[in-house]
Amino acid sequence: MEPILEIQGVSKKFNISRQAEPYLSLRSKLSSIFKTGRSYNEDFWALQDISFSVSPGESIGIIGKNGAGKSTLLKILSKITPPTQGRIVCRGRIASLLEVGTGFHPELTGRENVYLNGSILGMRKKEIDASFDEIVDFAGTEKFLDTPLKHYSSGMQLRLAFAVAAFLEPEILVIDEVLAVGDAEFQKKCLHKMEDVSKSGRTILFVSHNLAAVKNLCSKSILLQNGKLKTFSSSEEVVDQYMNLIENNNIGVNGVMQLNSADSEKPLRKVEVLCDGRNSGTAYMGCSLEVRVHFKSTQNLEAPVLGLIFKDSQHTPMLGVNNKHYVTSITTKSVKEGYISMMVPYLTLFEGIYQVDIHFGNGFRDLEVIRDCFQITVEPMSFSSSGEIPDKKLNRFFIKDIKWGLTAK
Fold first, then answer.
1. Can you list the domains of the chain with their CATH numbers?
2. Helix and strand totals (H; E) in the chain
3. Quick one: pLDDT at residue 21?
4. Which residues have C-beta within 8 Å of that of residue 146, sequence separation ≥ 6?
5. Which three-class secondary structure state does DSSP give residue 29?
6. Burial of 140 (0-12, 13-18, 19+ CB in 10 A)
7. pTM above 0.70?
């Protein structure tokens, strides 16, 4: 059978222009016009010589560390950006869901955007009409169909975008980590729909850090590492290889991990983990946990935000918090350098190995996101007077202090 998709020696190069002397103030920027400040260009290969083929009806997972080239590959497959080298042979229509609102026009209504997306996919109005009710029902946006999209929340836009991509029956469905934006119930609904799409004989390319979903949905997976194709095999084998890779992210016995270099334009510098006030790469159930994330920004931050997501060995999120959930702002003046600390009085996670994502931003705008940034081990510890530990099979986390009472009658 002829492949529905062939990727032949695809590489992608980006040219990064750097200024040797950064001019941060307005006065410096104006004066730099009359200076001969040196600048240089740097070639960055996001992808290098990627080759594989996909048969009709296959579901292919694409996994790898942050910056491995996953999103770049999907953008090339979706014809958003061309490859620098190599070529793509596609024998079917591709529907892509890469970012919230991709392919939508904010001034058009939800109804108009459904037809716009369908037209972009090359579908006739009659074909879109046949699926329109199912799209609206799945998205749950019936009340807002004739409202301009710019008034939709990001969640509403995501639901509509996924419904359009899934129900208009393209031969190839390309989905990035964007599903992580939705709530847990919607993610489950999407995964069920993707299973139906796969069973109907259509092809899916799925980028996700949810390894359990990748193994469940995809028969084969691709592991990208530093822009190169490391493995293309069964999802079970590829996920195992990926887990071995990220185990090297252990934060170490001293509880400190360096992130970007001192001269990096990215803001994150290092992360520290403290257990009961002492730096340590190992925590234990019930301990006082502190995570410090050090940063140095080129811009003033009015409302620094730190988000942390702890994921278990199957990459299932167990705990996700950011300071916006708890305080409006943790600073009263702008700041460029320092660290944000998250402190919890006692750690409620069970024993095990956890991968931690870091989201760092200014207000609601992400400045840097590092998935699987570091790994931390939580050791078992009896935290109650009985010496018993709750059954891990029945709990995703435990509660340290519960008051019990017995009233006899």
1. 5-246 (3.40.50.300), 256-383 (2.70.50.60)
2. 8, 19
3. 44
4. 109, 110, 111
5. helix
6. middle
7. no
